[in-house]
């Protein structure tokens, strides 16, 4: 048998093994994301020369939210995850982007990321995302955000907790995604009202 034929047989023998090798969990059929109920129209220009600015930081979050899986609080002391439900990226980033869209649309402020804020940071909004999942005891989607705001004038920090709960019909990916999206939009809207113009 020639050397090229030996290599061919060796490769053919490895093919069945390649179907058995897995480098991660099987992805769910679809991924969840957040959609802003209020956002600036496409093409609208904003300028810090004519509008106040605000810098929005990605919120900190607990270890239970340091994953793309959707947490379910099944009792006071136990946590599980919704089967086949997964965010497209970490919830903190999704929520920061949703707040940016909502605050820009509702207040007219120019929203900046920390990387864009060197020349004119304006007000500064940060905080901690305390809940972003499901309360199985009450069958509700829950979003809780502890906000910290430094307004344009001075270094005084204002803190406020925002929470919205939305009933869900079932603890499954579709219903949970819709419920959390609705709750997150309400929290973002409430934060925008607090920030003001």
Automatic annotation (TrEMBL):
Record protein name field: ABC-type transport auxiliary lipoprotein family protein
This protein's record includes keyword Iron: no
Signal peptide bounds: 1-25
Positions of the ABC-type transport auxiliary lipoprotein component domain: 39-192
Lineage: Bacteria, Pseudomonadati, Pseudomonadota, Alphaproteobacteria, Sphingomonadales
Xref: Pfam families: ABC_trans_aux (PF03886)
SUPFAM superfamilies cross-referenced by the UniProt entry: XCC0632-like
Keywords: Lipoprotein, Signal
InterPro entries: ABC_trans_aux
Cytoplasm found in the keyword field: no
């Amino acid at each position: 048998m020639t050397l090229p034929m030996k290599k061919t047989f060796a490769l053919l023998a490895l093919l069945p093994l390649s179907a058995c090798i897995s480098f991660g969990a099987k992805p769910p059929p679809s991924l969840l994301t957040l959609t802003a109920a209020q956002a600036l129209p496409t093409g609208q220009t904003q300028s810090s020369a004519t509008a106040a600015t605000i810098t929005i930081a990605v919120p900190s979050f607990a270890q239970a939210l340091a994953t793309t899986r959707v947490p379910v609080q099944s009792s006071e002391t136990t946590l599980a995850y919704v089967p086949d439900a997964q965010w497209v990226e970490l919830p903190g980033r999704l929520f920061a982007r949703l707040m940016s869209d909502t605050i820009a649309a509702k207040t007219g402020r120019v929203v900046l990321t920390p990387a864009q804020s060197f020349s004119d940071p304006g007000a500064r909004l940060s905080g901690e995302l305390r809940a972003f999942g499901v309360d199985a005891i009450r069958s509700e989607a829950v979003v809780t955000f502890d906000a910290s705001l430094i307004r344009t004038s001075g270094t005084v920090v204002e803190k406020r907790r925002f929470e919205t709960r939305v009933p869900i019909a079932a603890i499954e990916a579709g219903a949970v995604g819709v419920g959390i999206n609705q709750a997150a939009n309400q929290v973002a809207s409430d934060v925008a009202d607090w920030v003001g113009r």
